[in-house]
Each structure stands twice: as structure tokens, then as C-alpha cells.
Fold:
Amino acid sequence: MKRLFLSRLSRILPVVLAVSLITGAGSAATSTKKKRRRLAHRSTTANSAVFIHKVVARSSEPSALAGVVRGGPWTEPTYADSTDGDNVDAEDLEIRRAAVEALGQYHGSIVVVDPVTGRILSIVNQKLALGAGFQPCSTVKVSVALAALSEKVIEPDTKLKLGGAHMDLTYALAHSNNYFFATLGQKMGFDKVSYYAHLFGYGEKAGLDVPGEQPGRFPAAPPANGGVGMLTSFGEEISQTPLQLAALISAVANGGTLYYLQYPRTEKEVSEFVPRVKRKLDIESLIPGIKPGMRGAVDFGTAHRARQEEPIAGKTGTCSENHAHLGWFGSFNDVGNRKLVVVVLLTGGRPVGGPVAAGIAGDIYRRLDEKKYFAAAQPLTPATLISTYK
Structure:
């Protein structure tokens, strides 16, 4: 399976790409064969370099780790009516209107959650959001970063030496560097990566009694294609649902509470809504280590299309699966009286990707800001009074 690469590097030749990211010496004048040989025998992060080298050698196009696919036919439409069949009962209609208008004609799904309570405020394209899930692409790097910090594989300011290049976590998250996160996966090993992934909600339903919701999937063994390095850089063999990503991003936004996501469908259910905690994650001290990278993604990195006056933190994901391009963006607003988690998933052909998904999320935040949504005080309800959010 080949992957769609990040737009900022999509024009770079395959071997130059691999060498420049690992060695930081993209301008080297050595031949392609010598570059590949040097990569295959690099002592630093040897395991990652070997599997990267093998993938490059097999493809006449940029490598699978770089996320490039050969072409169609695309089995998912790029444009469609993504509201068809939705039930909007008891949704926050102001948020839904902003989401539908921002998504426009794209085929995809948007999930908006209150991270203070775990209430799902709106789901655009409920069939897609509640289905079996899709490869998370680079959004998996959020959970990998938290796992690596928890295991003290790195500190927030640790600069990994990848060949001749030195890179810290903030830069790697902001620019979604695949080799950095492949290296973290190799350092931790599959068992630890799997432990934290399940702790953070992969492979289980994120919602509580949400009709039709599927649990996604997390592999029982390292992927055959690229091993743990491909898993921790592209989410290889993982199926992630938009609700799972929304639950994890909510935990990052609220300081470590992983809520059961609940989706009230009547006004009575809304008025009687009470948050339900799935588990407390011991990540409060780790969040300051990943937030600069998630903020950086929006301020100067892969999610720059979401940038606006007020800070947004997020993570893009771009890859392909079963002849469909995928574009993910999981995000939250980092200031204001009211916080939202906005997750966008796009499926389709060449036009879709993480940066496009980030632009759609940014448009949602802008539309709501124009309506003074974030300036208003959080309404006092049983849910907010009971919430454990600090």
C-alpha cells in the first residue's frame, strides 16, 4: 500500500527525500545508489533506516513511508452530499450549521465535541463517522508522542539525531516528520506502543450507547508493511474512527480525562446529560510537551490553513487506503471561555488531504467566532457542574 505524502515534500525525488529527511543533507551530490547504500548502513536509528531504505528501493515513485500513491482508480467520491441521511435531533444547530457550511461539497465527516463533558454536539455524515474507521495516517503521532514522553524515551526538548539532522518533538509534530516517529516506534517497541494505544482508546468504542458505532481496530502484531515504524508514523493497519480521535483530542484539551462520548438525541436527554468518565489518563504533565508542536502545526506547519487570530492546536493526517485518499485533522481551540474539539475526516481522490481538512476545521472556528460563540460564558448545566475538567 502506497501513501500520499505531505504536500510540502510531494515534489521531491524519492531518494533525495529519504536522504534529506534522515541526514539533513539534501544538497549532497552523491549518486542515488550511494545514498541508498549509506541509508541502509546508517548506524543511527538503524532499524528505521533499513525499512525505509527497502521501501524506497521497491518503488519507482516516492516511498510508501513518504505517503505517495501511484494513482487511482479512486473508490470514494471527492464530492458528495455528506449530510444525506443525518438525524439532527438535539444537535447544537449553530455548530452544525458552521460545520456543514465549512465542509461544503466535500465527501467527509465532521465530529464536534465538548471536551469539558464528552458530549457530542454535532456529527456531519453520521454513517461515515460511526462506521468501521479508516487508517489514522499521521494523527496517530499524537498518541505516539504521549507514549514516548511517558516512557521517557524522549523529553520535550530532546533532539534526535537522524543521520546529520537534529530534530525535537515540537518540530516533528508541527511538520509531521515520519522518520522521527518511526524512530520513536523502534525505540519503544510494538508492545509498549500497543499498550498506550489501547490506553488512549484505540480498538474500543469511544462512545457510550451510540447506536451503530464501531470500535475500529488495532493490530495484534507489528504490520507486515514496515513494522512498528510504519505503525507509529502512518498508523499502518490501524482503523480509527472520528469519535476515537475526538475522544483522545478531548483528553489532551481537558488535561487528561478520557470521557465516554455521549450523543443525546432528545431535548430531555440534553437537559439530563451527565458526563461519564471512561478513565483518567496520566498525561497532564505530558501535555505541555506536545502542545507546542500541535500549536506549531497550525501556526507554521502542516495545518497552517486552520490558522487564525486565536490559537488552535491540532494534528493533520494524510495517506491513502484501499484506493481512497484520506485527510484527517483533530483539533481544539486553546483559548476562550468555551472549548471545542473539531475532528474532520475527508475521503476521496487527489484533492483531499490533511491540509484541506485543517482548512475546513479552521473555517468552522472562524464562523463560530464571528457568532461570538467562544466569547460567551459556558452555560451552567448539570453536565458542566459535574464535569471533572479543571
